[in-house]
Specification:
- This protein has four helices and two strands.
- The chain is mostly helical.
- The protein has one domain.
Length: about 80
C-alpha cells in the first residue's frame, strides 16, 4: 500500500500526506479509483482481487511525502474530468 500511495500522489496532486490533509487526499484518491478502477490487485484464494485505498490506509501513512506536483482542488477536478 505504501508504494501505491506514493504513486497516487501524482494523479491526486497532493505530494505529502499530513494530519491536515489526509481526508482530502483520501477523497481525491477515492474519486480517482472510482473513475479509473483499482490500481492494485492482490492474490487471494479466489484469484486476483482489486484493492482500493481506505481512509485508514491514508491515515496510517501520515508523514509520507514525495516530489509530486501540487494541484488545487480545481486543477484536480479538471484532471479527473478528462478522458482516461
Amino acid at each position: 500500500m505504501t508504494e501505491h500511495l506514493i504513486w497516487m500522489t501524482i494523479p491526486v496532486g497532493i505530494p505529502e500526506i499530513t494530519r491536515a490533509n489526509h481526508t482530502e487526499f483520501y477523497r481525491r484518491a477515492h474519486e480517482w479509483e472510482v473513475k479509473n478502477g483499482a490500481q492494485v490487485h492482490a492474490m487471494t484464494e479466489h484469484g486476483f482481487e482489486d484493492v482500493y485505498i481506505t481512509p485508514q490506509d491514508v491515515e496510517r501513512h501520515i508523514g509520507l511525502g514525495t516530489n509530486a506536483s501540487r494541484m488545487t482542488v480545481k486543477q484536480f477536478e479538471t484532471r479527473l474530468a478528462q478522458p482516461a
